[in-house]
Amino acid sequence: MIQFSPFTSVLDLAAALQRGDLTTVDVVDACLERIAACEPSLNAVVRLRTHEAREAARRADGLPVAARGPLHGVPFSAKDVFLVKGEVATAGLTDRIGVVSSETAVAVDRLTRAGAILVAKTNCPAGGAGGESDNPVHGRTNHPRAADRTPGGSSGGEAALLSTGASLLGIGSDSGGSLRVPAHFCGVFSFKPSTGRVPNTGTINHPGGLSDPRTQIGPMGHSVDDLELVFSLLSGADGSDSGVFVPDPYTRPGKDVGAGLAGLRVGFFTDDGLHAPSTAIVRAVATVAQAARGLGALVEECLPYDPQAALDVTTRYWNAAELPGGEYERLQTDWDAFRTRLFGAFRTCDVFIGPVCPHTAPLHGGVTVSTFAYTLPYSLLGAPCLVVPIGLDEQGLPLGIQLAAAPWHEATLFRVGRALEKALGLKSLLSPPASVISKSIRN
User: Fold this and answer.
1) Residue 128, C-beta contacts closer than 8 angstroms, at least 6 positions apart
2) 154 classed as catalytic
3) Which range marks the domain in which residue 211 is found?
4) Which of 12, 81, 124, 130 lies in disulfide reach of 204, CB 3.0 to 4.6 Å?
5) Into how many domains does the chain fold?
6) Catalytic entry in 178, 194, 278, 379
7) Which of 77, 133, 154, 173 is catalytic?
8) What is the pLDDT of residues 138-164, one digit of tens each?
9) Assigned domain for 311 exists
10) 257 or 19: whose pLDDT is higher?
11) Are 269 and 305 in contact (CB under 8 A)?
């Protein structure tokens, strides 16, 4: 008897499917059942691909073992900014109602070519950017633990669905924290890659190249290993997105990396001095820093950036269209100076540990610029960031911590995240809607 739980590792599930211990049809049906149990109170799903997913599952079960990819039969969901050929994707925009896509996003295509099956598209703010997943087309997504609270944005539908176990794997996008903040609010894992790693081709309002160098596509899921595997499949140039020009995808290191952190330099901070985090978040960061020290890392308390400078640059960038020529030049100069200083901090520390956000999930309408104060600085540099769930605060709301490394040092980031995950027993925080569903499948 094999237990297929809401938080089965994607790696373990794919291996079981490749061996034939499970059928893809049963796994896809289990995810569809969970979605039915969570909707419509959650309102995270804007398009349920029931027929398409079941057809793909039947085809997958008929493939010979030699033809099965690394994500064979694994269900996944995607933020509604990703196009799928022949289907409508609105990203919450009324002028896209009824618009049928003529292409499939590179990110979706790469996962499906690896054997994964798209089961659902998820809600986001109108246009795919913003702090709350609410729009005039699909309405508002609710937090799975408290309907009066938000799962955040812009990848809030993804995070909410994942936290119920109704999706095993998701992809979203992040410009200023849109993968990281929802993961923190909902208690799941997420990863924002370095600038230039994953093509944005085939997405709504994420054209790639130089249009917004902060915007990156990345995975959400239930373990560090799962995120690293998916990132390795998503990364690499596609010949279209001019911002992704290195052809080789990310390669996962071998097994000899080791579980400890001996020799790694880790910096941590609990407060940037402008946006005081809650007591629970301060305690969580301190706990993780202490765990890193116990694993052999050289740990010191330090803040790697000027938080006021990060907010100033970001605010001017958001209003760049209104800046006169001279002020726009000054913005670019100040942005470059900020990047240089933060990049320099990684000469003394390999990874920084800190808050994702000063607070846990607020009431609907409660997201402010301060909500993203701890994620925006790393976006300005284009640094890779990993969010791992830590626990619940006094109100029973999930919280996570953020790990950041220098650009293109994803391997170090995953190494630290994996070691902490194991040492602290970190896992996604099951939200009530999925707890009523379980499925056992005979070998």
Assistant:
1) 79, 80, 81, 91, 92, 154, 173, 203, 204, 205, 206
2) yes
3) 2-304+346-441
4) 81
5) 1
6) 178
7) 154
8) 999 999 999 999 999 999 999 999 999
9) no
10) 19
11) no
